[in-house]
Each structure stands twice: as C-alpha cells, then as structure tokens.
Amino acid sequence: MATASALPSIAIIGAGAMGGAILQGLVSSSLASNGVTVTNRSAQKAAALADLDGVESIALEQRPDGNTAAAASADIVLVGVKPAMVPDLLREISPALRPGATVVSIAAGVTIATFEQILGDGVAVVRSMPNTPAVVGKAVTGIARGSAVSDARFEAVRALFATCGAVIDVPEAQIDALSTISGSGPAYFFLFVEELTKAAVAKGFAEADARLMAEQTFVGSAALLEASDVDPAELRRRVTSPKGTTERAVAVLQDARLDLLLGAATDAALARAKELATGA
C-alpha cells in the first residue's frame, strides 16, 4: 500500500469550532509535516492549540499582523472566520498570499465569486462544507473548485480534508444543499438521541441509564451500518419482526410522515443558506 504524501504547508485563519476540528484531523494524520499555522482572536483560544505537534498558534490580540503572517506562511490557506468577516479578511491577507497559494473557504454561505472578486481571478479558490465529526476523523466534506484551481491543487485540498473523513466533489450550486444534509445532519442526530433519552426517562429509567441506552443504541447502530455491506432499509427490516413491537413503533414514525418532516427541515436550512449568501 502506498504511503500518503505529506501535505503542503497550511494556515487556518480563524480556528474556531470547525477550523479546530479540521486541525485535530490534520495533526492526528501526521501528514501536516510541512507545518500548520493557526490564528485566533484571543490568547486563551490560541494557547489551547499551541501544544499540538507541528502547530504554530497565533493570538491576534498579541500579534495584530497574525492573519497576514499565517497567510504568507502557507500554500493552502483555510478561511474559517464568520461569514460576515470574510470580505475584510480577504482584503487583509490578499497582498500576503504566496504565488500559487490555494485559498479554501469553510465559511457557510460565502460564494467562490466573492473570494475571486476580492482576491483576483488568478487566485485558486476552493469552497468547502465540512461537518463537526471532523474532530474524530468521521467528517463528510463537500468541496467545489473555483475557476483557477488546477487538478493538482484540488487533489491537495481533497487530501487535506481526507485526514478528517470522507470527501465529496460537488458543483458549487450543490454546496448549500449538501450543508442541509451533512453539515446540519449532526444536529438532527443529536436531537434524535436527546428525544429518545427523554422517552426513556418518561418510562421510568434513571437519567444516566436513559442516556446510556439512547446514546449507545445510536452509536452501535452507526457502527453496524458502517461495518455492513447492506443498505439501511435492509438493516431496518432485519430489526423489524412481522407483527412485532418494532413494526408497531416504526409504523407510528411513518404515519407521522418522517420523510416529509425531514424534507421540510432540510428545505428550511437551504432557504436560510440562500439568505446568508445575500447577507441577510
């Protein structure tokens, strides 16, 4: 088996929850041997990342030029600040970018066109949508390429996100739709765990036991799905004995039109993504 190649030098500007999750994947992979530089506004947040192997962590309150220094240090620059802050940040770091650098957006709702307009048409821009399981190496990340991205640069970005989980190539027009499934999906999962825990408590179980039952049932089911070569519908049928208790419970969920509910929920998320793209 071929050994994975080392990644180019990387900067994560605004290493908050998502940037920090990606950083954890990078460090765990041991592929970031050319260095990772990260920035945060506060010294406290920067200090929390400073001990990671191969990571230079910069606090902007101590080093106001930290963003430009990070950008100048890297061949791949991840932009992880809040969407409203992206234009000002791009104008700040643009003069510092290395020739041939690739700028990667992890900011929800900000288009490739916005990046290219500020950075210039010749700058390689990739838009991404990772999700929070990146911190345990189980992310799903959608990536879409801008007009100036070569195959080699796109593959380098793919390799970066592959350190955190699965990677899907999509046209930019599908990024917002992807975000309603995999981007927001962990919240849907946690909500199901939360509500099943409440159902267990209502049936007389202690809180700790209720949490254990609900959480481990979902964790175990996910592990079974991952290890299996059959689809979820078949796995569901294997649990659902004819005229049994599970069949009765599943019927209640189906009668409540869970399919329509999930469709409506993801439609609402998509509508909000489009609002964010217009600055609403």
From TrEMBL:
<keyword id="KW-0641">Proline biosynthesis</keyword>
<comment type="pathway">
    <text>Amino-acid biosynthesis; L-proline biosynthesis; L-proline from L-glutamate 5-semialdehyde: step 1/1.</text>
</comment>
<keyword id="KW-0963">Cytoplasm</keyword>
<keyword id="KW-0521">NADP</keyword>
<dbReference type="InterPro" id="IPR029036">
    <property type="entry name" value="P5CR_dimer"/>
</dbReference>
<dbReference type="InterPro" id="IPR028939">
    <property type="entry name" value="P5C_Rdtase_cat_N"/>
</dbReference>
<dbReference type="InterPro" id="IPR053790">
    <property type="entry name" value="P5CR-like_CS"/>
</dbReference>
<dbReference type="InterPro" id="IPR036291">
    <property type="entry name" value="NAD(P)-bd_dom_sf"/>
</dbReference>
<keyword id="KW-0560">Oxidoreductase</keyword>
<feature type="domain" description="Pyrroline-5-carboxylate reductase dimerisation">
    <location>
        <begin position="172"/>
        <end position="276"/>
    </location>
</feature>
<dbReference type="Pfam" id="PF14748">
    <property type="entry name" value="P5CR_dimer"/>
</dbReference>
<dbReference type="GO" id="GO:0004735">
    <property type="term" value="F:pyrroline-5-carboxylate reductase activity"/>
</dbReference>
<comment type="similarity">
    <text>Belongs to the pyrroline-5-carboxylate reductase family.</text>
</comment>
<dbReference type="InterPro" id="IPR000304">
    <property type="entry name" value="Pyrroline-COOH_reductase"/>
</dbReference>
<keyword id="KW-0028">Amino-acid biosynthesis</keyword>
<protein>
    <recommendedName>
        <fullName>Pyrroline-5-carboxylate reductase</fullName>
        <ecNumber>1.5.1.2</ecNumber>
    </recommendedName>
</protein>
<feature type="domain" description="Pyrroline-5-carboxylate reductase catalytic N-terminal">
    <location>
        <begin position="10"/>
        <end position="109"/>
    </location>
</feature>
<dbReference type="Pfam" id="PF03807">
    <property type="entry name" value="F420_oxidored"/>
</dbReference>
<comment type="function">
    <text>Catalyzes the reduction of 1-pyrroline-5-carboxylate (PCA) to L-proline.</text>
</comment>
<dbReference type="InterPro" id="IPR008927">
    <property type="entry name" value="6-PGluconate_DH-like_C_sf"/>
</dbReference>
